[in-house]
């Protein structure tokens, strides 16, 4: 498949507006301006584009809700707070192809009538923020941003906002809280963000990867997009492949390809010719799979059927030498550190799960700890306030499900076969 | 008006009302910690989780708008299991069991009552006869053996016919069957001594002050004063730190 989203990133000087224009940039914007906002929204709904941040909510549906609300000003926010471990799919656009994102935002803003936009970029991407700022200045000079864009009556002002490095701020309402200058805490819904979001105004928060798909949908039509990949969650998808593979990196592939194809054909197989032990299909907040699941298709429904989810599409491969208990411990550390602390189950539960995993990897675990950990994980899943809290135990529970024998080795034999747990290394 | 079913009971609600508001109107109790009717629901404590049929997750009643046709369970096994663990998690970083009865909130604390209800903590309250204002034991006694004299409820053992109905209705469970004397027995606050201004036998021999004999109000008043003093000292310490 020819690259659509990543077509520019290998071009020298791809951040420059002239390079972007010479590859046909901003033509989709002109086409969008010749349509009515409703037509643009309908086109995106028809294409079946779903939010690429992890929840896979239909992107056009969010716009439609905002479009129907007669309140001004409206805000559009690009969520570039890519805080999940192993996820780096938005980074190429922020650092190498900022104009594709800006064009996508301009079309989205036109579709539901937003006049102000923010790109909320994670604090750990200083280069991306710099590139975006330079790109915004360029676009303003050429009349793509600001007042009366391309001689029409459309206005759009765009700013870059740098986060301070928080996983939870990748959640739409926490992101808005942070943008408004408060602590990044989840807001209870309703009111939904599309009705009352940033500064109490209708706000749409879209993932960067969702927005970069928009110019291509407008340019080539919804039918083109809907024909790519799985019919229910179509389109090109950027998979960030990492871990023990020969060729880690970013792969733009249609949704619905199998894990085997991604890892063995595109990723070059397991590094050093080793065996595959586990694979996380969609970032650390999704359940891991084993080698029996290699033929599962990478789309929303197929992955849900095997008890996990596509998430952000960040595939992490673990070979036979990875200690799953140690991996679970590291995941637990991340989630207990990044829990915002608002709701009790996530704040306390992630902390206790981390404590239990430290205990087990230090060789002080008991068999009853596993039952307690499962109970904790399931309660956090079932009762946490936000989507991030809901998914924080997924990976840990899946290691418990598929690799219980490794836990038992740590508990009964006091041994870590992969020699990852220092206290147990013999 | 719309209608949903909470614990098998049809409940009417106005659109926009949460499950909690609907339940409150219907007199169905859902425990809450962080909820306050004067504030916007924050959904932080998760004590109010309920089970909505058809949803794989539990739903927080305080900030979820009720929907027509929903079937809600507020006390299913799933709800109790989750709630128990939430309480347990909160208690894990909470002052210890022994401090519970020293706390100003003791007796009116929702967290404490659920901790007791789920058996996560043992009540530190001594289980002696409370000498109830309206003693059920006296009301059920067939032979008029139980009498209330002043503030003291006591049993006239000669009259007791051993039916044990009083033991069954006693809310604190202090009335016991004495198999040797074939009567029920309970603390009579050593009425012979206390009527003369003395101490009951147990309090008179207690060397460590664990048992004392006074009016309930005096004891709780002292407890509250102690807690206030603690807060004051902490506040003063905080201030002096700031001034430095």
Summary keywords:
heterodimer; A: 426 residues; 5-stranded mixed beta sheet; globular; B: 244 residues; alpha+beta; two-stranded antiparallel ribbon; 9 helices
Principal-axes geometry of chain A comes out as globular
What's the overall geometry of chain B?
extended
Counting DSSP H or I runs of 4 or more residues, the number of helices of chain B is: 9
* Percent range for β-strand residues of chain A: 5-15%
Question: How much of the sequence of chain B is in beta strands?
Answer: 5-15%
Largest interface: A-B, 20 and 23 residues
Q: Enumerate the spans of chain B where pLDDT stays under 50 for 5 or more consecutive residues.
A: none
Oligomer: heterodimer
Number of strands of chain B: 9
Structural class of chain A: alpha/beta
Low-confidence regions of chain A: none
Structure, briefly:
The complex is a heterodimer of chains A (426) and B (244). Chain A has helices at residues 17-22, 27-33, 37-47, 59-67, 91-95, 98-112, 126-141, 172-179, 208-220, 222-226, 259-266, 300-305, 324-338, 344-361, 367-383, 387-391, 394-402, 404-413, and strands at residues 75-80, 116-121, 157-162, 203-207, 236-243, 249-254, 276-280, 289-290, 314-319.
